[in-house]
Amino acid sequence: TIQKIITHIDIDLSSNPTLASLAKAHNINASYLSSLFKKETGKNITEYINLKRISTAKRLLKTTNLQIQTIAQYCGILDIRYFSKLFKKHCGISPSEYRNKS
User: Fold this and answer.
1) pTM attached to this predicted model
2) Do the Cβ atoms of 62 and 99 come closer than 8 Å?
3) pLDDT tens by residue, the chain, 102 residues
4) How remote is the C-alpha of 79 from its chain's centroid?
5) Cα gap 41→63, rounded to integer Å
6) Is 90 left (phi over 0), alpha (psi -120 to 50) or beta?
């Protein structure tokens, strides 16, 4: 079950997956899914999604010339300020600084 959830997240970050939407899509109680996911992965769903977003953003920043806002949207984040804040929290530098260093 958790592998199906992970695959769902990995395939379509742009749909902005949430605990509630994933639970509904897989016919699982949200609280149960949350505890099961944490038990099996060591991370809660939000942490996993954010790490996947940052990983995808880093790859796109290195390999494309897409605008940062487009990359943020592709990663499921519509607010560019939130995306930049999240990226900086995880990487220590802004997305544009990351792109320039790569």
Assistant:
1) 0.90
2) yes
3) 999 999 999 998 988 899 999 999 999 999 999 999 999 999 999 999 999 999 999 999 999 999 999 999 999 999 999 999 999 999 999 999 999 998
4) 14
5) 29
6) alpha
